[in-house]
Amino acid sequence: MTESDLHGPLGALRPVPPTGVGYVVAEAQKLGYENGHPDWSNLGQGQPEIGLLAGAPPRVDSIALEPADHAYGPAEGLRELRERIAAHYNRLFRTGKRSQYSARNVAIAPGGRAALARALFALGNTVLGHQVPDYPNYAELLTPHLGRLTTVPVRTAAADGFRLRPVALRQQIVDQGMGALLLSNPCNPTGNVLRGDDLFQVVAAARELRVSLLLDEFYSHYVYEAAAGGRATPSHGPISGAEFVDDVDRDPVLLFDGLTKNFRYPGWRLGWVVGPTAMVQAITQVGAVVDGGASRWAQRAALLVLDPGRADQESTAVRQAFCQKRNLLVERLQALGVVVPGPTLGGFYAFGDVSRLPPPFDSAMAFFRAGLERRVLTVPGPLFDGNPGGRQQDRGAHRSMVRFSYGPSLANLQQGLDRLEAMVRGS
Questions:
Q1: Which residue pairs from 330-334 have beta carbons closer than 8 angstroms and sit at least 24 positions apart in sequence?
Q2: Contact (CB, 8 A) for 170 and 178
Q3: Cα–Cα distance between 266 and 260 in angstroms, integer?
Q4: Domains in the chain, please, with CATH?
């Protein structure tokens, strides 16, 4: 930075370009897009629809503030909520197991990214593996820590349905000397899901190799089962690495979740991390310095959302509604000529290959730009290349991949798909 730079509009600040969905929205806004505008279809959105769903409990639409809500809360979160979250995991994933989570195993954060940022800040000098493709913001969250962290990509390929192979992963952990591993499960953007024996093997590798496993489980209620003809049916319940943890205070497994996706309250900005007491305490110390903790009112409201009967009702309704939209999206994309690798059985995204479409729609960026002209947002695949600090050589593996979201309402999803079909068909 030169002296003249210091006197520019940014002063001593550095330019921070938008990434992932932020980039997509910024480009759409140049053409008049506004969040929630009914004449736009945001098939790039990273939040689920937030309105009423068939079979779901009523939306929480009011809360009475208490005098204490005007004060700071504890950085680790309110004890009542931490107890409720621990009970939530024990009930769903640890029935009959000797080792059970308690409030000491839980820390609350003001959002999912804040919880992840706390954990990354708390990591010491180590080698961290991260899945590619994966959540775009991981790269930006990791970049400030590259003085301490050496990042290693764990690549998955379209030819393999973007499946993460546990045996190969274990070998890469050993070969690269990883001390930590960051994964989203289900994966954003591919929809690939680690569950059953695959998830067991990943958790076992973390335990046996003493690798700190950071599992982003924000889409863990959006899971489906493969059915005939490439369709899917709703799974019976959510998934979590918590099911395969032996000792909640010894296994180095950190689970990240919140109200954002699984309970469809993204605007509340309430997330949490569940893991060994010592690791959670270290992460809480970071939170006390960096973000100060979540608001009291949101934590009190979360107690209602996580009431067992209400939580299960919401979770079941989410899988029913989003599985229907998943089937519609995948079928419409395939009919259009977009290839969707793998079974796509998690989250609310499909990662489609547009290379077989007629030019100019056969590249991700061209498809994205053309979609904006039709008032449809999608996310180009290169944004998921996961390259912290720009240190990895660009392999261009995802230049023909596009992430399509079925987070919007069914009507808005259909509107967007109709417009994309008209775009590709030239009508």
A1: 330/230, 330/231, 331/230, 331/231, 332/417, 332/421, 333/404, 333/417, 334/230
A2: no
A3: 4
A4: 17-54+313-425 (3.90.1150.10), 70-307 (3.40.640.10)
**pLDDT at residue 130, as a whole number:** 97
Residue 183's closest CA among 227, 231, 239, 248? 239
Torsion angle in degrees (nearest 10) through CA of 51, 53, 55, 61: 0
What whole-number distance in Å separates Cα of residue 407 and Cα of residue 348? 6
CA–CA distance, 220 with 185 (Å, rounded to integer):
7
Mean of all residue pLDDT scores within the chain: 95
- Alpha-carbon distance of 362 to 141, in angstroms, equals 31
State the pLDDT at residue 394.
Answer: 57
Other Cβ atoms less than 10 A from the Cβ of 414: the count is 16
Provide the token pair at 156: 């998955």
Q: What is the pLDDT of residues 192-211, one digit of tens each?
A: 999 999 999 999 999 999 99
Average pLDDT over residues 293-304: 97
Q: Which residue has the tokens 């002063």?
A: 11
